[in-house]
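Model the whole thing, not chain by chain.
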Amino acid sequence: MADRMAPFDARQKKLRTRIRQAKADALLVTNFHNVTYLTGFTGEDSYLLVTQDSATLVTDRRFTIQLAEECPGLDLVIREPGQLMLPTTCEMVRDHGIERLAIEAASMTVATQQAIAEKLEDVNFVLDVGWVEELRTIKDKTEIEATRLACWQAAKAFEATRALMRPESTERQVAAELEYQARRFGAKRLSFPAIVAVGPRGALPHAPPTDRRIGESDFTLIDWGADSGLYASDLTRMVVTGRLSPKFEKVYQVVLEAQLAAIAAIKPGANCEAVDKVARDVIDAAGYGKYFGHGLGHGTGLEIHEAPRLARGQDKVLLEPGMIVTVEPGIYLPDWGGIRIEDDILVTKTGHEVLTDVPKQLEDCCLDL
Ligand code: ZN
Ligand code: ZN
């Protein structure tokens, strides 16, 4: 049991260093994903107070069995029915003798902060601007394995769904099939609602699925991912079900070349803007620069979009071993469609490893219906 909790102990230890550096006595973790990251607990409505020598979760009766399974040994303050979150939390802060309390600026509401301030007049607040989020950018072994599994589940779901695609299948049906297949291969759910965009709808980088049918166009963009329990994967592939036009072929090769070049640039020490630029330069040189209107990629993890971002303006952020980022260049031509190719890449000590294994050469896109 001790072993299973070891990654969480290690994460809490790193956080304590950060709390000390900020000269705070404790951090009140209110972001649900951050609570999960630090404890393994996947329920909601619970706050975690991390001091230099303790970590205590304020939760309620609904979660006692789940807590015993997910994080045995964690100190708990269990609210009884009618016992409210805020007063219970304040009492705990007072019991620990905390004078400087760090709060998560990104998740705590102003109303909550003011209510705590009223109840605990002697407590000074320290703003935590993404401390846990920063720790989350570097994945440990268990996180990498969970992501690997999510990538595998996504690949299997796509393979099965692709085989079932028919000219009369609608975008919605393909999206539903992906979800079903991902679950069949053990995923908890898709990591976000799948994007299935037939033909011109692919020009919207985040097209919600409609009743448009696969057979209405020559190609379809599919962006999906699996959630293996806690960790997410995120891929995009093109499926050509009709005529393979010279235009498709040309644009596809540019996107693929941009993606492969950017992946090749991923290694420890590479800056996040420079990696984006590698892909952007390839697309610019081909004359499609203004049709690539988003950043190259993002971190994945407990959430589908995490730090770091591979994008302009991120030149101060350097890649480190253990980071997992997507690389997803795209070219979107209004009234014609969009082509995007997306994979998940682990930064390793010596370079990188592509975690997603779905064929993506031009011929791999073609599907005989
Ligand atoms: Zn995606
Ligand atoms: Zn993505």
